[in-house]
């Protein structure tokens, strides 16, 4: 446990310090590079925002995602083998978006059936790097004397399936939505100010951080399809027919990745190859496509 002095120093500008630390880690860590492709950087500068750990939206996720979805208070308490009510009065959630670098996105734009080696490696090694960010943030906070946990790294983290398909008990993009990073979309994925082609992560802590505003009008308002502009680009990009005007069929999507293009795991030497064709060559690939519409309307 560190000295009270260090803890006080961190409290001076906690939000700026946390953001600076995460950005520096993404900029300098060698894990944010693909070793066999000329050290290609995986992720550009991240977006970092915060949510109040007791925001009522987290309780809503038990209905929206699944009853087993944890609130931040439950996630922190479980990690310390305590009851949620025994946790400190204020807790916060740190949520980051890791936008995929241009070269990785560009490589997938020309594909019609399956992801490139570069995309698959950004899925496999990129998530390893995302785990490293989680570990780094937790270690930093604990070293400063705070409680901290990355729920996605905990033994209690789990995935399950229901009639709508796969889900987890800590959905990183629902956490990102709560922290005001953006909105969901026709393809299910989260459209942020840096677009849809990203990975995201989070940490829960008792360091008190200012909650970022959720400025979106609705939970779908960054997607052109839902704001009355004719966009079906992701429908046309999906080789599995998993996206229609009714939304994203998670069961079809997963089956396509596991069965139809499952051979890629061996070819690319990864345990998960991904797909992500719906996240490139689309108007929301690297920006919020509704931003200009909003400006024009003003
Ligand atoms: C299970 C899983 C999958 C499943 C199911 C995906 C899904 N839609 O949930 C499958 C295997 C299909 C999958 C595929 C992919 N995945 Co995946 N996957 C996950 C995982 C492990 C859990 C997701 C989860 O818990 N979902 C919960 C369910 C309920 O979410 P949902 O169905 O999308 O939620 C809808 C409802 O909640 C609805 N809703 C209804 N009412 C309300 C009310 C409110 C208030 C709100 C907020 C929402 C809401 O809105 C949502 C969107 O429609 C996460 C990692 C994590 N721990 O979060 C990664 C994750 C979701 N995957 C990711 C990625 C990148 C992919 C792929 C691109 C593969 C790749 N890398 O090449 C594809 C993309 C598929 C797609 N179009 O979204 C990223 C998403 C980043 C992003 N850009 O959004 C994540 C977050 C991993 C990460 N750490 O970054 N994945
Ligand atoms: S491609 Fe168009 S319809 Fe699909 S998620 Fe992006 S903005 Fe929405
Ligand atoms: S919905 Fe699934 S199968 Fe379709 S393009 Fe996106 S990741 Fe690939």
Gyration radius, in Å: 19 Å
Listing every helix as H and every strand as E from the N terminus to the C terminus, the arrangement reads HHEEEHHEHHEEEHEEEHEEHHH
Q: Which residue ranges are poorly predicted, with pLDDT under 50 across at least 5 consecutive positions?
A: none
What fraction of the residues are assigned to beta strands by DSSP?
Answer: 5-15%
Mean pLDDT, nearest integer?
A: 94
Helix vs. strand class: alpha+beta
Number-wise, the strands total 12
Q: Level of helix content?
A: 25-40%
* Biggest beta-sheet profile: 4 strands, antiparallel
Strand sequence of the main sheet, in spatial order?
3-4-10-5
Could you tell me how far the N terminus lies from the C terminus, measured between alpha carbons in angstroms? 52 Å
User: How many discrete domains?
Assistant: 1
What compounds sit in this structure? Answer: cobalamin, iron/sulfur cluster
The total of helices stands at: 11
Shape: globular
Description:
- The chain has one domain.
- The strands form 5 sheets. Strands 3-4-10-5 form a 4-stranded antiparallel β-sheet, sandwiched between helices. It has a two-stranded antiparallel ribbon with strand order 1-2.
- With 298 residues, the protein is an alpha+beta fold.
- It is globular and about 50 Å long.
- The protein has helices at 4-11, 14-28, 57-64, 72-79, 102-109, 117-143, 172-178, 233-237, 250-260, 264-268, 291-297; strands spanning 33-34, 40-41, 47-52, 92-99, 148-149, 159-162, 165-168, 182-183, 191-192, 198-205, 243-244, 247-248.
- It contains 11 helices and 12 strands.
- A hairpin with a 2-residue loop joins strand 11 (243-244) and strand 12 (247-248).
- It binds cobalamin (B12) and iron/sulfur cluster (SF4) (2 copies).
- The site of one iron/sulfur cluster has 13 residues, from helix 9.
- One iron/sulfur cluster is lined by residues 185-187, 223-225, 231, 233-234, 282-284, 289.
């Amino acid at each position: 446990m560190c000295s009270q002095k260090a803890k006080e120093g961190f409290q001076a500008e906690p939000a700026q310090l946390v953001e600076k630390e995460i950005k520096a880690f993404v900029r300098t860590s060698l894990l944010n590079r693909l070793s066999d492709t000329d050290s290609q950087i995986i992720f550009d500068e991240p977006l970092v925002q915060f949510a109040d750990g007791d925001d009522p939206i987290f309780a809503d996720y038990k209905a929206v995602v699944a009853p087993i979805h944890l609130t931040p208070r439950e996630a922190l308490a479980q990690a310390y083998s305590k009851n949620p009510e025994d946790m400190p009065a204020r807790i916060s959630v740190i949520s980051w978006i890791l936008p995929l670098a241009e070269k990785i996105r560009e490589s997938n734009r020309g594909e019609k059936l399956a992801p490139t080696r570069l995309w698959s490696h950004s899925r496999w090694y990129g998530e390893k790097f995302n785990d490293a960010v989680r570990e780094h943030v937790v270690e930093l906070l604990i070293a400063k004397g705070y409680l901290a946990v990355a729920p996605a790294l905990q033994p209690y983290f789990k995935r399950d399936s229901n009639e709508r398909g796969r889900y987890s008990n800590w959905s990183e993009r629902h956490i990102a939505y709560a922290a005001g990073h953006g909105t969901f979309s026709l393809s299910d994925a989260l459209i942020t100010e840096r677009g849809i082609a990203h990975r995201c992560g989070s940490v829960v802590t008792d360091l008190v951080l200012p909650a970022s505003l959720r400025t979106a009008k609705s939970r779908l308002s960054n997607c052109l399809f839902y704001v009355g502009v004719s966009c079906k680009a992701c429908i046309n990009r999906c080789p599995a027919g998993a996206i229609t005007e009714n939304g994203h069929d998670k069961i079809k999507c997963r089956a396509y990745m596991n069965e139809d293009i499952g051979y890629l795991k061996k070819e690319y030497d990864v345990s998960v190859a991904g797909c992500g064709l719906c996240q490139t060559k689309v108007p929301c690939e690297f920006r919020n496509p509704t931003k200009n519409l909003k400006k024009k309307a003003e």
